[in-house]
């Protein structure tokens, strides 16, 4: 299992940067593999993120397990707080 995280390397929002970093640090600490897709690199990648989530009013980070949409930062944060991270990431 390898997660995919749509993120942005270019953001004027400190909050977005902190959210992305929190997810990366958590995954690294748990030794969970992930791929990063930088939506700032191409408008096509941003459109791909919108298409895969089914939403157009979203911001990175957005998390996927394969083609399965796991959620955004707030959903990740709630899963950590509720100790339901495996369920969030859909890890068996």
UniProtKB/TrEMBL annotation:
Protein name from the UniProt record: SH3 domain-binding glutamic acid-rich-like protein 3
UniProt source species: Huso huso
InterPro entries in UniProt: Glut_rich_SH3-bd, SH3BGR, Thioredoxin-like_sf
Family: Belongs to the SH3BGR family.
Taxonomic superkingdom: Eukaryota
Gene3D superfamilies tied to this protein: Glutaredoxin
């Amino acid at each position: 299992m390898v997660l995919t995280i749509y993120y942005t390397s270019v953001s004027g929002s400190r909050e977005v940067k902190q959210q992305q970093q929190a997810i990366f640090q958590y995954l690294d600490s748990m030794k969970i593999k992930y791929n990063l897709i930088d939506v700032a690199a191409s408008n096509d990648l941003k459109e791909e993120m919108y298409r895969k989530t089914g939403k157009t009013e979203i911001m990175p980070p957005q998390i996927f397990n394969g083609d399965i949409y796991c959620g955004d930062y707030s959903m990740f944060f709630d899963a950590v707080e509720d100790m339901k991270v495996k369920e969030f990431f859909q890890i068996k």
